[in-house]
UniProtKB/TrEMBL annotation:
<keyword id="KW-0328">Glycosyltransferase</keyword>
<keyword id="KW-0320">Glycogen biosynthesis</keyword>
<dbReference type="GO" id="GO:0005829">
    <property type="term" value="C:cytosol"/>
</dbReference>
<feature type="domain" description="Glycosyl hydrolase family 13 catalytic">
    <location>
        <begin position="169"/>
        <end position="485"/>
    </location>
</feature>
<dbReference type="InterPro" id="IPR013783">
    <property type="entry name" value="Ig-like_fold"/>
</dbReference>
<dbReference type="InterPro" id="IPR004193">
    <property type="entry name" value="Glyco_hydro_13_N"/>
</dbReference>
<dbReference type="InterPro" id="IPR013780">
    <property type="entry name" value="Glyco_hydro_b"/>
</dbReference>
<comment type="subunit">
    <text>Monomer.</text>
</comment>
<dbReference type="InterPro" id="IPR037439">
    <property type="entry name" value="Branching_enzy"/>
</dbReference>
<dbReference type="Pfam" id="PF02922">
    <property type="entry name" value="CBM_48"/>
</dbReference>
<comment type="pathway">
    <text>Glycan biosynthesis; glycogen biosynthesis.</text>
</comment>
<dbReference type="GO" id="GO:0004553">
    <property type="term" value="F:hydrolase activity, hydrolyzing O-glycosyl compounds"/>
</dbReference>
<dbReference type="GO" id="GO:0005978">
    <property type="term" value="P:glycogen biosynthetic process"/>
</dbReference>
<keyword id="KW-0597">Phosphoprotein</keyword>
<dbReference type="InterPro" id="IPR017853">
    <property type="entry name" value="GH"/>
</dbReference>
<dbReference type="Pfam" id="PF02806">
    <property type="entry name" value="Alpha-amylase_C"/>
</dbReference>
<dbReference type="InterPro" id="IPR014756">
    <property type="entry name" value="Ig_E-set"/>
</dbReference>
Amino acid sequence: MFSVFIARYALFYNHLKNIEESEGGLGKFTESYKTFGVNQLADGGIYCKEWAPGAEAVFLAGDFNGWNPFSHPYKKLEYGKWELFIPPEDGHSPVPHGSKLKVVIRAQNGALLYRISPWARYVVRDEDKVNYDWVHWNPPQSYIHKNPSPKRLKSLRIYESHVGIASPEGKVASYKNFTYNVLPRIKDLGYNCVQLMAIMEHAYYASFGYQVTSFFAASSRYGTPDDLKEMIDVAHSMGITVLLDVVHSHASKNSEDGLNQFDGTDSCFFHSGYRGNHQLWDSRLFDYANWEVLRFLLSNLRMWIEDYRFDGFRFDGVTSMLYHHHGIGTGFSGDYNEYFGLHVDEDALCYLMLANHMIKTLHPECITIAEDVSGMPALCRPVAEGGGGFDYRLAMAIPDKWIQIIKELKDEDWNMGNIVHTLTNRRYEEKYIAYAESHDQALVGDKTLAFRLMDAEMYTNMSVLMPLTPVIDRGIQLHKMIRLITHALGGESYLNFMGNEFGHPEWLDFPRIGNNESYHYARRQFNLTEDDLLRYKFLNAFDRDMNKLEERFGWLASPPAYVSEKHESNKVIAFERAGLIFIFNFHPYQSYVDYRVGIETPGKYKILLDSDAGEYGGHQRLDHNTEYFSEEYPHNYRPNSIMNTSSQPPRRCHMHQVKVYIPSRVALVLHNTDIPK
């Protein structure tokens, strides 16, 4: 096994050495976004460069030359590259800002192909057109960032977001709306990081941003590039880290406004033939062994960091990249034979190592996250160890486990040991991002946790003016408990998809032919939390206070929890992390008086967070003035245990009756008041 990591590092090192020797260094190689495409020079001239190895000739056409396809030919260079210099006109750019352009490719069969440059920074689609147009973006004054990026966070609390649906209105929302209406909400909820989906331009809105057509262009359906820069700048002013959901695992099959067949051939950026097509996603697959593909993808990452000031990336579809089978029809049991062998795409893995090395070298404050369902070992270990170099990986088994439990088991059959195992089963010294649900569970065809728990009653019984039905009561209590135990036990970071924090009703469905192009489900009804007569406010308040508590005590940045109890018949889970005691009673109807809980650190404990509190839609069965005193009574392999009393500490003796009250379907967080924080 160790020889595999040595071989992987050797492949990475050889690529890096070749780049250093042939391109003048990794820094210069990955700055290619400043020379490829169409770029403004200081003297007002325009420099254009493309890689089109299958082209017979290349031209630039557009508004600036009356769409003459032959008046501005590119000069052919080595290795399939082409360049064009257009001198300034009276000190001004010959290609005005806002004018439309196309790269004209003469294919090997003689056909003229009108293409958007793979490096285009801005593309738009007119309402009466199907395809996108490339628009030259060179405003007289670009947005100037005013605020520095936040320092690297120890505890990541991520708010997964989609700009277009971030409004209660049935329309495509804007960067401006997100800046001034959503960012303050994220800050108030206690999230310190926003992960933005569907930013890289994608022609098909309903693809959720995962069928990218223009990799260097910020989606124009939400506004201009400067609007996005302002949004990120304002987030930084609030201390919010901003991550981009980057899609380098595949690309849209579009050719008129995408990368596919850019130079008239089946390959160029992609593998040719069967290997270049993803059978499930109906998309093209990059050739990660190709020198110019590495230039393109690495430069793409650097552009998003340096031009827009993104603070890192969540790499989508990493499992598809890592294996030649792309994870299709393959289950992963954890057997090491699944991760080493000819079925692993070592070129793709090498690209990921290069990407993380580049990011950590040039921008060490940036964060990278891998979306990998397979559990590839060492993906989040340093590149120097032969690892993938990522900072975090998504704990993708956790949401699947919650769905399986809720769908298949009665409440009294929930297995505490299985829940704890799923939440704590992670690779040693690799950081995981825990989440109870993400955008995947919100999409049409699936159900959010809230919808699974409460279903149709969410339409009729979420008003406080209506009696609290058993279904709504159960849903509200379990929704809070599931999120807290996932947050506190499941990893070294936490993620929530926008709206799910308050149990957003219904599903997420983008306008498409199948729903008559409706925007009714392509929105987030944040207004529900602001209606004092609706119970959504309870879940929203709990989520906020849960995050604020983590901000105060930092359990995500603390060592993994010590689980002292997972009692099957009692349905109780208890653990310690960051000096706090977490107690969960999942029993549907059994409350416990005199329940003993084992602890490590002696002292006086009080309630910090109580899911049964009235402000969270609970039944207010606990007195928050209660003090819990430890005693030297070993329990569940802990040297001490706790009891409660109204005012006086217990007498010093070796054994006392423990009197901890744990109501049914309640989660408690206790802290030691003898330890200053």
